[in-house]
Amino acid sequence: MKSDRNFVLGDIHGAYRALMECFEKADFNYKDDTLICLGDVCDGWPEVNKAIDELLKIDNLVYILGNHDDWALKWFISGEAPGIWTSQGGKATIESYKGEIPPEHVEFLKSARLYYKKDNKIFTHGGFNIFEELEYQDKDIFIWDRTLLQLALNLNFSGSEKNITGYDEIYLGHTPTINYGVKKPKKICEIYMMDTGAGWPGGVLSLMNVDTKEVFISTQVDKLYPGIAGRGF
To answer: In the chain, what are the helix, strand and coil shares in percent, each to the nearest 5?
Structure first.
């Protein structure tokens, strides 16, 4: 078995079955391999609790906060469940816990990073302001912003792609590639779009080896959860 590999994973959105498929296809080693999750394990399919339990088994895990994780964490702590959250997958998160939230799940989301930097590579959920140092930026920029990605998309559309940040590689979740007709990670400028729509009917979950760029993709997630709409309800 290969060991000491570095993987990056797109938005899970409660799709535990897709997560296990990706791990199996990659022959993922829970002890020796490193997994960088780009956020949004929460909200969508019905097994958020099982997905977090599985991630907690990984010795070398870097977990980055997503906007849906932030919503779920507020519910974990306060019990508040605003309609804007429950209508976008939060209902499935609530139901997955059946009234009992393990303290280690609360701590898991509380301790999530806003970004991770390694070897001039940046991993974050949504994006960041390229004109400001990362350590000075607000949480909402990292978990919600799409300005950086939109800039790259505009350059791609105009046929003038270039490095726009000075980083060698940037890995983002948050924006599904299925919005652009693609069911695999998509590279634009130095940005890798890793959210391949696992939260939605028609989407898949993708795991990538950061060093080799080999990709491991799940079955279409709605086929793993027949009769359930995910975030499509």
So the answer is: 35, 20, 45
Tokens of 142: 């990292």
User: Taking a C-beta distance cutoff of 8 angstroms, is the pair 75, 99 a contact?
Assistant: no
What residue spans of the chain are helical by DSSP H? 16-26, 48-55, 67-78, 83-85, 91-97, 103-110, 139-144, 147-158, 221-224
DSSP 188: E
229 pLDDT tier (thresholds 50, 70, 90):
confident
Quick one: average pLDDT of 223-227? 96
Q: What is the pLDDT of residues 65-87, one digit of tens each?
A: 999 999 999 999 999 999 999 99
* Domain total in the chain: 1
Q: What CATH number should be reported for the domain holding residue 66?
A: 3.60.21.10
Element (H, E) at 117: strand 115-118
Per the structure, the complete domain to which residue 72 belongs is given by 6-232
Tell me how far apart the alpha carbons of residues 57 and 179 are, in angstroms, rounded to a whole number.
Answer: 32
| Model pLDDT, residue 232 | 67
